[in-house]
Structure formats: C-alpha cells, structure tokens
Write a structure and sequence with these properties.
8 helices; 15 strands; elongated; MoCofactor_Util/Proc
Amino acid sequence: MDHGAVWSEVSRSGGAAVLATIIAVEGHAYRKEGAAMVLRPEGESEGVLSPGCLEDDLRARVPAVLASGLPELVYYDMRPEEDPIWGEAIGCGGRITILLEPLDGELRSLLLEAHGLLEAGRGAVLERRLAGKRIEYRLIRALEERGADDTAGELLFASAFRPVPRLILFGAGRDAPPLCALAAKIGFRVVVADWRQGLLSADRFPAASERIAGTPEELARRLNVGSGDYVILCSHQLRRDREMLERMLPASPYYLGVMGSGKRVEVLFEGLKRTPNVSAPVGLDIGADGPEEIAVSIAAELVARKAAAAAGVREVGADAGRGFVFGGGTGEPDGRRQAVR
C-alpha cells in the first residue's frame, strides 16, 4: 500500500471509491505487488499503478464494481510474445493481476486502523481470503504476531504494512541537506542530528521530521536506535563520528552507513568490528562527485536495502489468465486460485 495521498483518500469521509491493488506480477512491471491506488466514479484518482497505460481501463471498471458491490480481478498480459499491441511498446512487458474492491465498510475501517498502527510505529498485515464471490478480511495487528494460519478460506493476498523507516543523519554539514531532501522523497522519515545547533535550521532541512542537537552520548540516549532504523554518520569530524560509531554498533540498526574515504573508514573502525549491517564507505560506487551526486549514490543504496527488508513480507505468487484481447482480462474471485503464498 502506498502512503501519503492514497491514505488520505482512504480516510476521506463519504463518497464512493474503489481500491485497486496489484496482487501479482510476472516479469517486468512499473510497480510491484502491494502497490495501490484509489479510484472514484467521477474520474478522480490518487496513486499510480503504471506509467499511464492501465489507469484509464481501471477507471472504466469502477462503476460496475460499485454497482455490484463485489470485488473484481483484472489481468493485464503485456508481454510482447502474448500481445504485440501492448507489451514492450508501452514500456511494461509483464503480466499483472489487479484486485478491485469497493472501498467501504469493513475494508475502509481496517485500512484506517492499519494507518493508525503505522502512525504509532507498529506494523500490520491485512489478509484477504476468498468466500465465494466475496472477500473476508483479517487484520493482524503486528507483523511479528503472525502465527499459525488457522483461518478458513483460500488466501488471495496479504498486504503488509510497515512503518515508514527512520533515517538518522548524524552530521548537518554540506552533504546532509540534499541527502535529507532525497531520502524524504523515497520514503524515509529523516532525523538530522548534530552537536552544532546553528546548522539545524528548518531552512536547511525543510524535509526533516526532526532536528536534534546534542553530543553523541546525548543523541544516542535520546534517539534510542533500534533494529529497524537506518543511520548514516556524515559529520566529517573524525572524533565525533568515532564517538557515535561506538554507540551505534551495539545498537545494531538495520543499516549503518559511514561517509568518507576508504582510508578514513579504516581509521574510524580501528579496534572495532565491522558488522554485516555496515556500509562503509556509504553509497553505491557510481563515481559520484559533490553533495548532490553523493546523495544520489546513497539514496540508491537505501532503496536497495529498504527493498530487501520488505521482500520478506511479499507473499504473492501468480496464476493469472493469459491470451485476453489487448492483453487484458477480467474475472471474479470465485474461489479459483489467483494469487497465493
């Protein structure tokens, strides 16, 4: 599920709407399983599932879904060998299954509850199970609480909701503002921390959710870094980075990046063990030069690490239809296997 605009649409009071969710992908696709958008009968929408090649067809299906009150499965087979009209000509080239659901009643209530859990820093899983032509929903209120599966009905899809990951930038120097801005755009809640209060202005870091001043010892205590956090040391002050590094290694964040040259990294880690969560020097080796390009190289690595963290909760396979005219097809969730773990 997308955050931001889609959540805003879910929480809007009144008005009919349809939730469209990608539940299976085979081959290349613009978005992955779990991506969602909200469609309204007036033609308005929030979120995207494709570069623009699927949305018009999905909008055309909204009135029928709302009229029936039933979910609908839509298949788009855009592989060039299956359909020379769609496929690579529109830049997708994969097979996609999309679930359309009336956004009302229990589904809306459970999505709002899931959003509340995310705001509180907790995760959740929304299971959809087939019950004839309808879907039964079950919200598991913490990812780690998911136990043995004793629920009746065939699992159609499980949407995993994880809190927006926190990225802590220790160091508010010239490299930090472009990295903060870019990280916020790719789905991180960014906290900028530094011992120099004067560098932590809102003008320099408008995208930061928090700006915290303090010594490494004070910051380590206040930030309470955990296993789901991402941390980057970028103060360019060897002593300060070392002090913070000594506190971050035992905290075991999911990702710990250290900015600087290979030689500087060796000095920083002298006498310390480099654990698997450490990326030092931080970022992908793309020949970056200057704060903006360095931010791009780090952001790319963050995307890869975040995707790896999420991969464990994508629980979908595919048995979607083939050979539909123009690469598309329609079906009802009538108990026939469509997407399972």
